Amino acid sequence: MKKNKKMLIFISTYILIFIFVFTIIKHNDIDLQGNLLSTNASTLSNKKIGWGIKREDNHEQPDVGKENKALMDKYNGISLGNSESKKVYLTFDAGYEAGYMEKILEVLKKNDVKACFFITAHYLNTQPELVKRMIDEGHIVGNHTVNHKSMPDIDNDTIKKEVMDLHTAVYDKFGYEMKYIRPPKGEFSERTLEYTNSLGYRTVMWSLAYDDWDESKQGREEYGKSKVLDNVHNGAVILLHSNSKDNSNILDDVIKNIKDMGYEFDTLDNFKA
Question: What pLDDT digit, counting tens, does each position of 179-189 carry?
Fold first, then answer.
């Protein structure tokens, strides 16, 4: 009788231990060897998406792609604002300094416009004074990662390092907490959207841009103006590159003309879809 009782206690204990271990494994995504598995993002599609837009006439909102827009909405991304609101949002990609940021910041200050600057680690390391000025003057500083790698091409651990190393560096220097990210090269997947969300970041794409990043294609100021002014629309998320001399020269006119057209510049913190 005592022997049977001991056996029953042993079996019950074994079952309880098994249930406990299985629950821990299930909850924490740990394999039977005790290794932490990838987050849920690893089970999602890693199909690389290159962001693109199809322009419309008469200042109508562009087509950003039904599936792409659905993904952005699913993960609380920013790409296209409210179609009934004449709000526009100005953003810059700043991978490196080409000598035009001071002028850009002066123009923004003169016109009382706040922008979001997506910077890389190279920009932070080489131009900390300009990054500090962005913050001090009320602009948003966004994360463009450490090394500008295409996110679908790297695993979650590398993404975390690319994003959070820059995040930590900015916080350590300025006490500033970044919360917006623009995927390098405009490339992402559902996996990377979900994973950067899990790191506390909101993805920001765009609905208005032109080929301004190529420094061999400068000296086209009228072209740049027309590309922006002819295509501005309600809820526009405007992408400009700060390494463009043309952008630094046309920015004042562009801002004034957009305002004259009845649009209002707002910040990503006030974004409404």
Answer: 999 999 999 99
* Domains in the chain: boundaries: 40-270
Sign of CA dihedral 262, 52, 123, 145: positive
Tell me, yes or no, if 241 is annotated catalytic.
yes
CATH homologous superfamily, domain 40-270: Glycoside hydrolase/deacetylase (3.20.20.370)
Catalytic residue among 144, 167, 241, 246: 241
- DSSP H or E segment with residue 87: strand 87-94
- Rounded distance, CA 212 to CA 9, Å? 74
Q: 30 forms bridges with which residues in the sheet?
A: 36
Nearest to 58 by CA among 261, 254, 266, 267: 261
pTM of the model: 0.84
pLDDT 10s digits, 67-93: 899 999 999 999 999 999 999 999 999
β-partners of residue 187 are: 50
The helix or strand, by DSSP H or E, that contains position 166, with its residue range, turns out to be helix 156-174
* From 93, 212, 246, 266, the catalytic residue: 93
